[in-house]
C-alpha cells in the first residue's frame, strides 16, 4: 500500500529564513530578514520557518531571534514555526509568543553529536519536556530526522534506522515528521522505500514531510517519487540558500522557485505565486551579495501560451 491520494494539493514549507540563512556567512540584518519573510508571505507561502532559538554562539546568523520575533507582523493564516533545541530555547520561544515549533535530531549518533552535541537518545530525552510543554500550550509541533538517507561520517543510513527515530518522536507527541536528505545523497527508489516503511510503523503519509537538498541534482526527482508515494508536504528555501554547517560538501536546499515551477507545470496546486517567490529570491540574493544561481531564478518561469519566460525581471515591492 502506497498511501496514494487523488488530492492534488501540495504544502510548501518555506525554510529560507531559518535553514536557508543559518549557514550563510554574510550577516543579514533583522530588518532585512523581516522584509524577506514579508515577501515570502506576499508570494502566498503559508508556512515560513522564521528563525531558531539556539545559542547565538552556535549560529551567529540567527542570534537576533528574540528581536526578529518581537518585530514580526503576524498574518492571519500564516504559520511561523521556530526551531527549539532545548528547554532554554523553549522559554525564549514562549516569551516571544510563538505557536509552532520544530525540534531537530538525526538518524545517526555521529551527526547528532556534531550538530547538536548529543546522541540521538540524549536528544530524544531533551525533547520530551519541550514537546510536552508545547502540547500543553496547544502549539503545532514538527520534528526533523536529518541524515535520513546518508551521513557524512558513517555512510549510508538504513531506512529502518530513520523510521525508528521518527516513531520515537511521534510517540513524544509531534504532529509531523520531516525526513531530511541532509547531504543530498538520496535517490527516488530510496524515497518510496522510506515512505512505505514509515507507514508500516504507524506514521501516516499525511504526517510525513521531506526536506531535500539538491547537492547532487536529485531533489526534484525525489519530490516526484514522494508525490507518487502519497507525500504532499515539502520543504524548500527561496533562493536555494543554505546547506548544513556540520555536513561537509552539502550544497543548498531545494529552491522554492524550482519547486513551484515544477509543481505548476505538473498540475499540482499549492497557492504560491512564482513571480512573488522570484522577487523574494532576488531580494535575499542581493542582501547576501551574490547572484541568484537557482535554475528558475536564472531562466524565469514560462508562459505556455506565449512561449515567453516570465518573472525574470521580478523585483521585491518597496
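Sequence proposed for the structure above (318 residues):
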Amino acid at each position: 500500500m502506497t498511501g496514494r491520494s487523488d488530492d492534488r494539493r501540495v504544502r510548501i514549507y518555506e525554510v529560507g529564513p531559518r535553514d536557508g540563512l543559518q549557514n550563510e556567512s554574510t550577516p543579514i540584518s533583522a530588518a532585512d530578514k523581516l522584509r524577506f519573510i514579508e515577501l515570502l508571505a506576499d508570494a502566498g507561502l503559508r508556512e515560513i520557518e522564521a528563525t531558531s532559538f539556539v545559542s547565538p554562539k552556535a549560529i551567529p546568523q540567527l542570534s537576533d531571534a528574540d528581536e526578529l520575533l518581537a518585530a514580526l507582523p503576524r498574518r492571519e493564516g500564516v504559520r511561523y514555526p521556530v526551531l527549539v533545541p532545548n528547554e532554554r530555547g523553549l522559554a525564549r520561544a514562549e516569551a516571544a509568543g510563538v505557536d509552532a515549533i520544530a525540534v531537530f535530531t538525526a538518524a545517526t549518533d555521529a551527526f547528532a553529536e556534531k550538530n547538536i552535541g548529543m546522541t540521538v537518545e540524549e536528544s530524544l530525552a531533551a525533547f520530551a519536556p519541550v514537546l510536552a510543554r508545547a502540547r500543553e500550550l496547544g502549539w503545532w509541533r514538527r520534528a526533523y530526522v536529518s541524515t535520513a538517507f546518508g551521513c557524512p561520517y558513517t555512510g549510508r543510513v538504513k531506512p529502518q534506522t530513520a523510521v525508528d527515530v521518527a516513531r520515537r518522536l511521534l510517540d513524544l507527541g509531534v504532529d509531523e515528521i520531516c525526513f531530511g536528505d541532509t547531504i543530498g545523497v538520496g535517490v527516488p527508489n530510496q524515497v518510496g522505500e522510506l515512505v512505505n516503511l514509515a507507514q508500516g510503523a504507524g506514521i501516516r503519509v499525511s504526517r510525513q514531510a521531506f526536506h531535500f537538498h539538491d547537492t547532487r541534482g536529485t531533489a526534484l526527482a525525489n519530490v516526484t517519487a514522494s508525490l507518487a508515494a502519497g507525500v504532499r508536504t515539502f520543504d524548500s528555501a527561496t533562493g536555494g540558500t543554505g546547506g548544513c554547517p556540520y555536513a561537509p560538501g552539502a550544497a543548498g536546499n531545494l529552491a522554492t522557485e524550482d519547486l513551484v515551477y515544477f509543481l505548476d507545470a505538473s498540475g499540482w496546486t499549492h497557492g504560491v505565486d512564482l513571480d512573488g517567490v522570484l522577487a523574494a529570491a532576488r531580494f535575499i540574493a542581493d542582501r547576501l551579495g551574490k547572484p541568484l544561481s537557482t535554475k528558475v531564478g536564472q531562466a524565469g518561469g514560462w508562459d505556455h501560451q506565449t512561449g515567453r519566460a516570465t518573472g525574470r525581471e521580478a523585483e521585491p515591492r518597496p
